[in-house]
Design goal:
This protein has 241 residues and is an alpha+beta fold. Helix content is 28%, strand content 29%. The strands form 2 sheets. A 5-stranded mixed sheet has the order 1-2-3-5-4. The protein has a 4-stranded antiparallel sheet with strand order 7-6-8-9, with helices on both faces. Helix 1 (87-100) packs across helix 2 (127-148) and helix 2 packs parallel to helix 4. The radius of gyration is 18 Å and the shape is globular. The N and C termini lie far apart (46 Å).
Length: 241
């Protein structure tokens, strides 16, 4: 039986979250995001080019890369190189899809590419949800810098997007799982949602047991409440000029 959460958190309570902007001098936009002891550095860079398949479209593109630094976990993680990714490739595609879902790529200033690099400095569960939440802030700042430079008239981000995990641990539904909880979860789910409450993506798995439609609804309601908190933090972060 799972007894107490870290820091005596309630089952519906997210971890302490912080979003710090402008942490990397050479990035067009950057954000250091903390979900408890999970720390991810998100850097957005805009380049005036697109890959061959996108040429002639007149539109931009948003993509992402994700990696865990060697000392980010309890055991050293070998450095990842192109062609040797798996889990990281799946997560970076999720981050890219999440940001593209709220970006009007016809308003990016032509055929340009935004790359959002998400590097996990410290991992304690929820690295992909932290990466998505921080990536939006980095993307917003990068587009704002692009706008101030006269490259675009308005920021092409049409909404906010954030993500959080939810799961069943010891028969209890819990929000924003840390590693200790995630490693024991009977059901594990990641939810991505925009500021209007529309779902962007749901990744849910019965790791050790099945779950009912009613439990699914309860988990989605729990996730939405957590995401609404994250959206409020994002908004306060980017408005704090």
């Amino acid at each position: 039986m799972f007894a107490t959460r870290s820091n005596n958190r309630k089952d519906r309570q997210i971890r302490e979250v912080s979003l710090e902007r402008g942490v990397i001098k050479n990035a067009t936009g950057s954000c250091l995001v903390r979900f408890g002891d999970t720390v991810v550095l998100c850097c957005a860079t805009i380049e005036e080019r697109v890959d061959g398949w996108r040429k002639g479209s007149g539109k931009g593109w948003v993509t992402a890369e994700y990696a865990m630094l060697p000392a980010s976990g309890s055991k050293r993680t070998p450095r990842e190189y192109k062609g040797r990714k798996g889990r990281s490739q799946e997560i970076e595609r999720l981050v890219g899809r999440s940001i593209r879902s709220v970006c009007d790529m016809s308003r990016m200033g032509g055929e340009v590419t935004m790359t959002i690099d998400c590097d996990v400095l410290q991992a304690d569960g929820g690295t992909r949800t932290a990466a998505i939440t921080g990536a939006w802030v980095a993307a917003w700042d990068a587009f704002e810098m692009w706008r101030r430079a006269g490259k675009i008239k308005t920021n092409p981000l049409t909404s906010q997007v954030a993500a959080i995990s939810v799961g069943m641990v010891g028969g209890r539904l819990m929000l924003d799982l840390d590693y200790r909880e995630d490693s024991r979860a009977e059901v594990d789910m990641n939810v991505v949602m925009d500021a209007s409450g529309k779902l962007v993506e749901i990744q849910g798995t019965g790791e050790q047991t099945t779950f009912s439609r009613q439990q699914l609804s309860e988990m989605l309601d729990m996730a939405q409440s957590g995401i609404e908190e994250l959206l409020a933090l994002q908004k306060a972060c980017v408005e704090g000029e």
